[in-house]
Fold this protein.
Amino acid sequence: MELLRPDSAEAAAAALGNGSVALAGGTELVPLLRDGIVRAEKLVELRDVVPRGVDGTRIGAGTTLAELEVDPDIPQALREACSLAASPQLRSMSTLGGNLLQATRCWYWRLNFPCYLHGGDTCHAKAGQHREHAIFGNERCASAHPSDPAAALLALGARLRTTSREFSLVDLYRLPTDEERNVTALEPGEVILELDVPRPEASVYLKAMERRKWSFAIVGVAAARFADSIRLGLAGVAPIPWALSSVADLEQATPLLGTAYKVQIARALVRRAVEAVSAPAGA
Ligand SMILES: Cc1cc2nc3c(=O)[nH]c(=O)nc-3n(C[C@H](O)[C@H](O)[C@H](O)COP(=O)(O)OP(=O)(O)OC[C@H]3O[C@@H](n4cnc5c(N)ncnc54)[C@H](O)[C@@H]3O)c2cc1C
Ligand code: SF4
């Protein structure tokens, strides 16, 4: 396999596609290459060409989760989401851009079962083991999106700038369909450069997990208050980061037999998150 080191983001984008894949921290990509789930002839290294660091409301996609978890200038929800993700070693390698594009943790998918998301016509998890799977958007694929930062950025109303366009984070994700199984809408030759993350009056990220550290979200809930409105973004509940407008939306959940418990957890976390960001009475 060849490693390309382009000298600009545009050159990196031009080198992608046709068997070439972007490499940032490699914490997600390298295991997928090793297991034969992703195939690549060339890796295009992004480290020197994608912005890194925080400048006002702009965050470079090459910034690591470890850098973000200690940055006092970013919204609390994003800081907390980064600090609760993975392990310190992984966070020191993991970039924000790579985190948003990480694949599902569904074990059937990772074991290369020919499931719906891999292009087949069956969701093996629905009939099999699915305790960690979805309670929303699970008609075809019941996977649960693993990114904590994506849930925070959804609640914060973040926008992305890539080598070819600017768009809302909400439009980065889509539920898989018969025509398109990929849950992200990035074009093959497109590199995420930076994010614009509005500053809320208050924000928080709460995460229920199997262990207190180094565990993916069973349910993650981000809440952000802008003036009188509170926005919610959830991790671990649908194949993509999932927006709710209030706790009442949880009545629309479509849990599987093994994921019904997540609705109760989501209800408790959403209530707690909303309370945490609500303006004090009389303020
Ligand atoms: C054991 C383990 C536990 C974890 N726990 C959590 C957790 O609790 N919460 C959580 O949120 N995450 C968790 N993660 C995921 C981890 O945060 C991601 O692996 C990491 O953020 C990916 O970033 P990276 O820079 O290493 O990406 P890479 O592995 O380099 O790339 C990932 C994907 O993104 C693409 N890519 C990367 N950057 C760009 C860019 N700028 N533009 C276009 N494409 C790009 C790559 O081509 C690849 O497809 C865990 C991972 C592991 C291995
Ligand atoms: S949940 Fe999605 S990724 Fe997992 S087996 Fe079903 S279709 Fe495949």
Remarks:
- The CA atoms of residues 83 and 116 lie 32 Å apart.
- The mean pLDDT is 96.
